[in-house]
Amino acid sequence: MNINKQDVRIFFRYVLPSIFSFALSGIYSIVDGYFIGNRLGDAGLSAVTIVYPIVAFIQAVGTGLGMGGAIYFSIERARGQDKEANRLIAIANWLMLGFSVLLTTLVLFYNAPMLKLLGASGNMLPLAQEYIIIISFGTGLQIFGTGLVPFIRNLGGSSFAMISMVSGFATNIVFDYLFVWVWEQGMTGAALATVLGQGLTMLFALAYLFRKGRFTMKIHLDQVLPATSSVVRVGLAPFGLAMSPNISLMIINRFSASYGGESAIAVYACIAYMISIISLILQGIGDGSQPLISRFYGEDNHRQLRSTQGLAYGFSLLLAFASCLILYVSRSQIGILFGTSVEVNQEVSAILPIFLVSVPFVAISRITTSGFYASQRVVLSYLLIFIEPVLMLVFMLILPPLFGGQIMIWWCTVFARILCAVLACGMAVSVKKRYLMEGKQYENSTNPKCNLKNPV
Fold it and tell me: Whole-structure pTM over 0.90, yes or no?
């Protein structure tokens, strides 16, 4: 593979701000757990964990719609179709607005059955409801906050996207401290802090797009259906990638409630928060390289397409192993960070190494998946995204009753992720052979559309 210094420079120029942004979004998810856990103990921490898949679903909808529009925007812009690119921004905005209204209504009126389905009961249920009702009123802020950021990255504003995320994150921390610890508003205060942080990110994103003259909602009625189809078809993949860990979380919580009870849910809450940060860092690599992959795909620039993907694989594996080492060394302090009981903290320290086994495999799966949807190979990305929770569910139905109850619940997660990575490798090799065959005519020629000094 031909990777030169300029490829590396451009890759990190896009990817590093994206990694930082996604890492912050992962810390977003643990901030509420930290403040609530240290104020309300195991019950509050378990309630935040139970409700988190709903919050993640809302944010994943924004990510999917924004990414679906941004990928097509980048490809069409690389092909010189600027009007078509603007139409994709418009339809993405309309879709985000529509889903904001829909999800606000659904969560506000049907939160109780949703939470019960996720395993909330006893003391956890009222705490979870208190949290999610506030979140429902800020649904639009969260969807636009996550959905506009991909457009910023595809316009070359990765650093600004990072700044907007940092600002929202800092706001969340400040208000969590004030609402939860100083003013003792409990779950309501934590939810308000989350909503206000996402709202600030949305305002930064809107300001950037208006300054660039790229925020629009103008689209002819006859273009709505084809544009919607394009955005949703591709957007399902990043939506699924954002949601997949939370589908896994729901499955694990449901089975853990049966085998290990509230303490097992609290144990996995701590582990899930840490693993989710690593997963989001890996997603940051994939989504950070997406503007380049989509651009090179639109330009038929096969050499730089493969170069970018190779860098993404190598860097993701490096960060995966480094993250595993850091978490392994600090495993005895993780439960303490969230204010858990001594027993739960000891269990976290004992169980965490099991989950670390799967992290390098997650890196392979995520980079492969993001590469597929960035180059419009959406069927392959769908398969990789949704097969993991399916495998996990199958394993959990079969293995724990036969081989060890709760401990096998943890191992089922690892087995599913390993198999998913093996499948990803096979699919990536097949696609790479096709790239090589298609790219021979480009290897020894210069594509006039490609100018790395002026990236999209």
Answer: no
